[in-house]
Design brief:
single chain
Length: 358
């Protein structure tokens, strides 16, 4: 495992993704609330965002790190899934096959919150949660931009409370997921010694979820019900334990699944269903199909996620983040566009090397 990663947090990611995978592929009632794994992801994301925000030099620096983290695997997954669906359309429903325009537009629409308002078919059904992630990232970036970095958690809480007060139970809105991000941020604030902010954030998260529940808010993606409120409480406790307690070494294999959870999440749903359709494995609670779906499919998907992590996400995340923070072009381009004389080229090279170190 990487030294700068929390094994406990990676184990939570693993639980979240395995929960989601089981929901999609194992026809047992115990996994019927599999989308709650996505809610656990949101809580973990909120926890990690706190540290990203505190170490960012500016709002753009923060958002550039988020883009650099998400885009490499997202671009690869988008192209791969779209290509396979076009090559083997017989193994997937026609209404789940995106056009190539939709595929490329997805890569623009998600980070810009669908600014062009064009309806599209996502390359994979799992991409819906990225809408929520990017909305939360942009909210954090805006608050950082106006000088509220030190008060990010209370500022988000106040913004969500205002949105909640102005919302309607009959109209779904993205903020009804933000309680889970706030929960993770609250745990991070507690770990950083900001106890009052942590208590305020936890109270707001529970209040928002309880308010949505008691007022019968509608949410088609993950319905708001008593078990979802319990999931929020569980997420707070789980993130707190994972962040505060040192995980034993025997959990390293589980943490590895968490390490590759993002590409695994992007690729598992539709490609997994297509592979099972190709193998003619029915969605049935009979013993053999269930064992195949529960014991064979997940390890294969984890292997695919690991390949994407090691050959796409890991090598490209740092490079893309660095470029987004301050785009760098070939030196000849800088010289021509900035009017730099050839005598200044050594200074430019030294500056570029220093940027790469950063």
């Amino acid at each position: 495992m990487q030294n700068d990663r929390s094994i406990g947090i990676d184990c939570l990611r693993a639980i979240a993704i395995l929960w989601v995978v089981a929901y999609h592929f194992v026809p047992l009632s115990i996994f019927s609330k599999g989308t709650y794994g996505v809610l656990l992801f949101f809580a973990v994301s909120g926890y990690c965002i706190s540290f990203s925000a505190s170490s960012s030099k500016s709002a753009w620096d923060f958002y550039a790190k988020r883009l650099g983290r998400l885009l490499p695997a997202l671009i690869f997954a988008t192209l791969l899934i779209t290509a396979i669906k076009h090559l083997f359309p017989q193994f997937i429903e026609a209404n789940r096959i995106p056009t190539w325009f939709h595929a490329f537009y997805t890569l623009f629409a998600l980070p810009t919150l669908h600014i062009l308002k064009i309806n599209l078919i996502y390359p994979d059904g799992a991409f819906w949660s990225l809408d929520i992630e990017f909305q939360f990232y942009l909210l954090c970036a805006l608050l950082i931009a106006v000088g509220l970095r030190k008060y990010l958690l209370p500022a988000i809480c106040i913004w969500c409370l205002i949105r909640f007060a102005l919302s309607s139970p009959k109209n779904p809105y993205s903020n009804d997921f933000f309680a889970f991000f706030i929960a993770g941020l609250s745990v991070a604030s507690y770990a950083a010694g900001h106890r009052m902010q942590a208590l305020f954030g936890t109270a707001v998260a529970l209040f928002l979820e309880a308010g949505h529940l008691l007022l019968s808010y509608q949410q088609p993606s993950v319905p708001i019900e008593t078990s979802r409120f319990a999931m929020l409480a569980f997420s707070i406790a789980a993130v707190f334990v994972a962040a505060q307690c040192k995980a034993p070494r025997f959990l390293n294999p589980l943490a590895f699944v968490g390490l590759v959870s993002y590409p695994l999440y992007l690729l598992h749903q539709d490609l997994g269903h297509m592979a099972l359709a190709w193998l003619d494995v029915p969605y049935s609670d009979r013993l053999v199909p269930t064992l195949i779906r529960a014991l064979i499919v997940p390890p294969i998907l984890v292997g695919v996620g690991a390949l994407v992590y090691f050959y796409v996400e890991k090598p490209l995340t740092g490079r893309l983040t660095g470029w987004l923070r301050r785009p760098r072009f070939p030196k000849s381009v800088w010289i021509r566009t900035a009017g730099v004389s050839p005598d200044d080229q050594p200074q430019i090279a030294e500056r570029d090397l220093e940027q790469q170190r950063v």
